[in-house]
Each structure stands twice: as structure tokens, then as C-alpha cells.
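Notes from hallway chat w/ T.B., transcribed later so I don't forget. T.B. wanted the structure written out for a chain they're using in a teaching module, and asked if we could keep both sequence and C-alpha cells in one place. Agreed to drop them here.
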Amino acid sequence: MNKRKRKEDELTVREIEVLILISKKMNDFEIGEELCISHHTAHSHRKEIYKKFAAHSDLEAVLVGIERGYLKFT
């Protein structure tokens, strides 16, 4: 299996912002409020992250985000 990232699998700046907030255990309503977007838009970003990462949960998305260098924990 090819582990190289494809361009279409890279996150947008907004998706990275959403991923960071997901890692802080925020739900779609809280993310929407924080980023001044609707909770529907926040949900769409969350689902796009799941798709790009082949994730089925917030935990999986965060773990892939760490693995790919989008998130760093110290």
C-alpha cells in the first residue's frame, strides 16, 4: 500500500483549524461558534477530514492528524 500523501488528501487551512478544535473535544456547535461558521459547515469540515483520513471517529482523525504532522502534542 502506498503511504505517500496525495494532494487531494491534504487538509485545507480551515480543515486544520477544525481538526485542532476536534482534538480539544469540541462538538460542531462549539466549533461553529469558535470559527464564526454554522454548525452545519463545521460538520461538513469534520466529515471531509474523516474522508481524507479514512477515519471513522474523532479519535481516529486526531491520531492520523498527529501521524501526518497536522497536530503536535508536547
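Follow-up for T.B.: The helical segments are 13-23, 28-35, 39-53, 58-67. Might be a good example for the class.
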